[in-house]
C-alpha cells in the first residue's frame, strides 16, 4: 500500500512517529512526552492523546517506528542479496551506512539501550525483544552462509551475531562520540576478520563419493 493510499489518520500518525523518533534521539525516551511531541509537530496536546493515550504508549509506538525504520533501511535490503557471505556483507555495509548517516532509527536503539538497561517495565521489555529479534536475524543470515558451504559447518551463528553487534556498537561509539576518522575502517577490518575466521576452506579438496552399483 502506498503512503497516499493510507487513511489520513494513519498518515498523520506515521508522520508524528517519524518526528517522535527524531525527538527521542535528542532527548531520550524518558524525555519524550505527549506535550513535547505535540509542540514539535504543531499539534494540540488533546490531539496527540487521541493518537497515543499515554506517555508509555507513545514510547512503545516510537520504539516500534524506529524498529521499522531500521528494518526498512538495513534488514530488508540486505535480504535481497544472495544468501550467504554476500548477504552478511550487505547487512554490515547497510548497518555501517546507517551509523555514518546518523539515521534516527539506528541511533535510538543505541541510546535507549543505555537509558533503559535498569528500568524495568513494558518499554524496556519491548526494546529487549527488538534486540533479540535483530540477533536472530543476523544469526539466520550467517546460517545461510553455512548452508551454502561458504562458512564452516561448526560456525557458532549466535556468537557471530554477538560479535558483529559488538563491532557495530564500537563503530557508533568511535564515530559519534570520539569523532574517530578511522572508526569505519576499524569496523570493516573487524568484520573481515570475523568472516575470515568462519570461512570454509574452499581450496581443500573434497573427497569424491563413490556410489557402488
Automatic annotation (TrEMBL):
It comes from the Bacteria. Residues 10-70 form the HTH tetR-type domain. Signal peptide: none annotated. One of its GO terms (molecular function) is DNA binding. Keywords: DNA-binding, Transcription, Transcription regulation. Residues 33-52 bind DNA. InterPro entries: Homeodomain-like_sf, HTH_TetR, Tet_transcr_reg_TetR-rel_C_sf, TetR_C. Coiled coil: none annotated. Pfam families: TetR_C_13 (PF16925), TetR_N (PF00440). This is AcrR family transcriptional regulator. The lineage of its organism: Bacteria, Bacillati, Actinomycetota, Actinomycetes, Micrococcales.
Amino acid at each position: 500500500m502506498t503512503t497516499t493510499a493510507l487513511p489520513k489518520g494513519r498518515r498523520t500518525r506515521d508522520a508524528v512517529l517519524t518526528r517522535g523518533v527524531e525527538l527521542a534521539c535528542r532527548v531520550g525516551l524518558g524525555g519524550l512526552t505527549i506535550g513535547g511531541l505535540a509542540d514539535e509537530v504543531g499539534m494540540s496536546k488533546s490531539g496527540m492523546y487521541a493518537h497515543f493515550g499515554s506517555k508509555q504508549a507513545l514510547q512503545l509506538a516510537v520504539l516500534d517506528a524506529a524498529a521499522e525504520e531500521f528494518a526498512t533501511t538495513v534488514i530488508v535490503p540486505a535480504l535481497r542479496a544472495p544468501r550467504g557471505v554476500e548477504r552478511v556483507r550487505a547487512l554490515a555495509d547497510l548497518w555501517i551506512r546507517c551509523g555514518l548517516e546518523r539515521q534516527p532509527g539506528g541511533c535510538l536503539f543505541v541510546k535507549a539501550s543505555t537509558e533503559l538497561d535498569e528500568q524495568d517495565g513494558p518499554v524496556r521489555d519491548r526494546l529487549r525483544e527488538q534486540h533479540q529479534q535483530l540477533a536472530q536475524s543476523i544469526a539466520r543470515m550467517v546460517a545461510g552462509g553455512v548452508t551454502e558451504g561458504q562458512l564452516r559447518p561448526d560456525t557458532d551463528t549466535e556468537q557471530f551475531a554477538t560479535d558483529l553487534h559488538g563491532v557495530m556498537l564500537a563503530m557508533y561509539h568511535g564515530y559519534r562520540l570520539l569523532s574517530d576518522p578511522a572508526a569505519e575502517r576499524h569496523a570493516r577490518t573487524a568484520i573481515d576478520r570475523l568472516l575470515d575466521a568462519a570461512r570454509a576452506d574452499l581450496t581443500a579438496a573434497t573427497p569424491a563419493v563413490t556410489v557402488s552399483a
